[in-house]
Amino acid sequence: MADRPDPIQIRNSEDVVVVRQRVRAAAVQAGLRLVDQTRIVTAASELARNTLIYGGGGTVSLEVLSDQGKKSVRLIFEDRGPGIADLELAMKDGYTTGAGLGLGLGGAKRLSSEFEIESKPGQGTRVVITRRG
Hints:
This protein is an alpha+beta fold.
């Protein structure tokens, strides 16, 4: 069972703030512990920034899932940007094509219970993360 509101647009830095707020609200709704709330919000912030900066903007969909009474939060980030040519390299800490620290994708993976990424050069990127309580 999933509760999935409309996707949130990520077009500017203010939208990144909205993503963090909405993800925190979803994590609270799911009953995640504070540490798990912080992890999913931090991962969402990194991925929202990546979507904006490297993907040229996109969307995130939030789902509160319930499986046998246990709730979790799933986020689906999508962009139609240039894609990632070398996913293995992009997942390594310290790798960046910009001015950041290069911790975004790897950090988001470590902060998530589940992490999936698909990217095709010239077509965009899709990242799905889930945090269970």
